[in-house]
User: Fold these one by one.
Assistant:
Number 1:
Amino acid sequence: MGIAIKSAEDIEKMRIAGRLAAEVLDFIAPHVRPGVSTGELDRLCHEYMTGVQGTIPAPLGYCPPGYRPYPKSICTSVNNQVCHGIPGDKVLKRGDIVNIDITTIKDGYHGDTSRMFHVGEPSIAARRLSEITFECMWLGILEVRPGATLGDIGHAIQRHAEGHGYSVVREFCGHGIGKRFHEEPQVLHYGKPGSLAELKAGMIFTIEPMINAGRREIRELADGWTIVTKDHSLSAQWEHTVLVTESGYEVLTLSSGAPALPASLSSAARQSAAA
Ligand code: MF3
Ligand code: CO
Ligand code: CO
C-alpha cells in the first residue's frame, strides 16, 4: 500500500480536525482536579465534542482486529497506566499524573492528540518524567522534513529518553492518520538514524512516545484495553498529529492551550549544544 500523500483538500480538513482535538484538551484542562473521576472527564469531553463542536469521538466503539469495542469517548491513563486507560469510577487525587488522549472526527477526518496533566502538585519525579516525555515528542517532531526517515524520529526520541534513564515502550507507536484512525506507517519511538521509510511532503502521522520511569515492559489489564507498566513505574505520553511540509513540519493539533515547543529545544539552542 505505501504511505499516503494527502491532497490539499485532505490537508485542509485535517487542520480542522486536528485543531478541534486540541481544543477538547483546552476545554477539559480546568476540570482535571483532585476529586474528579475519569468517567466525569469522559462525560464532559463527550458532551463538548458532540454538543458544542459537532465532532465524533473516534474511540467510542472503536474495534481493531482482536479487540473488543472501546467503551468510552476518550482515554485517561493515570500514573502507571501507559495508554488506553478506560474512564470510569477512578477518582483523581493530588499528585496523580494523567494522560488524556482525544481523537475527533470532523467531516470524515481524524485529529489525534494527547497531553499530560498534573492533579494538584506533582512529585519532582513525576514532573520530570512528564517534561522529558514532552521533549521527546518535540525532538521527534523536529526531525520531520522531506528526506528524513522514520528511523531518525525514533532515534531522537529513544536517545533523549534513555539518556535520562527512562525506557521507551515498544508495543505501541505513532501512526498514519486521515480518513482512518490508524493508517500506515507505524511510527516507532525508537530506532536507528537513516533507517525505515523516507518522509515525503504530504504525509500525515502522529508522534506519541510512551516513556516509562522504570523498565519498558508492559501488561494489558483484564478490561482488554488498559496498558500498564509491568514494574508499576510511572509512565507518561504526549501526542501530536504532524504534516510533512516542503520545508519541514506543521503540527496540526495546536490550540491556544497547547504548550509550546520548549525554548531549550529551539534550533538555535540545539545548534549551540552540538557545537
Ligand atoms: N488515541 C490513541 C492513539 O493515539 C488510540 C486510542 S484507541 C481507543 O492512537 F480505542 F482506545 F481509543
Ligand atoms: Co494516535
Ligand atoms: Co491518541
Number 2:
Amino acid sequence: TIFAFLCRNSFTMPTMEMTLEKILQRQGFGSRKLCRTLVRQGRVHAGDVVCTDPDRRFETDALHFSVDGEDWVYREHLYIVLNKPSGFECSHQPQHHSSVFTLFPTQFIQRGLQCVGRLDQDTTGLLLLSDDGDFIHRYTSPKKKVPKVYEISTNAEIDESQLEKLKNGVQLKDETGMTKALSCESFDEYRMRLVIAEGKYHQVKRMVAAAGNRVEKLHRSAIGGFALEESLPAGEWRYLDVNDLNKLDEPLDP
Ligand code: URA
C-alpha cells in the first residue's frame, strides 16, 4: 500500500531512478531539448559507457557521468564552501566588481546556486553557497543565531574600551536595540577576532566604527564549528560533505 511505502521510505535513504534527460536537466545542462540533443549526439557517458537514449533510466545515487569528456557526479543539491577573494560581489548582478558566481561552472548557476548570506566585496574568507532553499533559509535566518567568526585588522590601535563596547553592545544607526558581539578579543594593537550571531548589513564594519575604530581588512574564518581550512586557496571552492554540514550546527572550535 501507499502507506507502507511511505513508512518504509521515510526511514531509509531514498533511491531514485531518473531518465538521462532529466538527470542532465537537474544538474544544470540546460533545457529538456538541449539535454536530449546532447545525449543523442553521443556526448554523454553514464557509468562509463556512452548512452544515446535520453529516456534510459539510471539510479541517481552516486551516479558518475560525463558530458563532452568532463566528469560529474550526480548531486541532488549543491553545498559548497568558497574561500572568497577580495574584489568579488556576492550578487548575480554585480555593480562595480566581478561576481563570485564567475568562479563556478555555468551548470551551477543554471541550477540556481545562491550565496548563504553575503560578504562585502572587500571581505575575504568563508562563504557558503547552495541551491537548497531550506538550507539557505536555515543559515541566514536571524532566529537561528549561528555564530560567525571574523578576523579583523583595524586602522587605529585597539584599546580595552573598544573591546568592552563591542561586548556590551553598540547602537547601530537604523537598528533597534543594542548589537552585541558574542565574544571579542584582540591579538595585538591592530588585530582582533569578533564573533557575532546575526548578519546585519555591514554589521562588523558598523560595530567596529561604533566602538571608535575602523575595519581595514575583514576575513571570515568560521561559521559554527566549521572553520575554513588554510589549505583552500583564495578563489577556490570545494563541496561540503556530511561531516562539514554537521559541523555548522556544532559550537565554535575553541
Ligand atoms: N560584516 C561586514 O561589515 N562585512 C561583511 O562582509 C561581513 C560582516
